[in-house]
Amino acid sequence: QLLSEPERQYIFDSVQDAVRIDGRQCLAYRQAALRLDLLCYATASAQVSLGETDVLVSVREEDNPGATAQQQGSTGSVVAAAQQQQPVSHPVSVWVDCSCLGSGPEQQQLADEAQAHLSSLYRCLRTPTPVFVDILLLGYDGDLLDAASIAASAALMRALPASLLSAQALPLFATVHRIGSQQIVDANQLEESCSMARVTVGVDSNGRLVACQTCGEGSLQFESMTEMIETGVRKAMMLHDSVAKLVARVL
Amino acid sequence: MQSAPDDEELDSLSIRLVGLDENYPVRLNWNDLGVQFSKQSIVVPGDRLTRSREFIPGHGTLRRTVEAGSGNASFAAGRRQKQNDDNAEDNDEDDEDEDEEGAWELAASVAGRQHVVNKLLCVLPGRSRYAGEIGDVVVGRVQEVASRRWRIDANARLQATLHLSGVLLPGEDLRRKSEEDERAMRAVLAEGDLVSAEVQSVQADGSLVLHTRNARYGRLGQGTLVRVPPALIKRSKTHFHSLPCGVTLVLGMNGYCWCGPTPGQSDVREPLASPADRSEVARVRACVRLLAVNHVPLYDTSVMQAYEVARESPVALLSRPDEQLRVARLVAEQLLTAEVGEAQPGGGGFGLHSGDLISGGALSAVH
Question: Chain-wide mean pLDDT for chain A?
Answer without folding.
Answer: 85
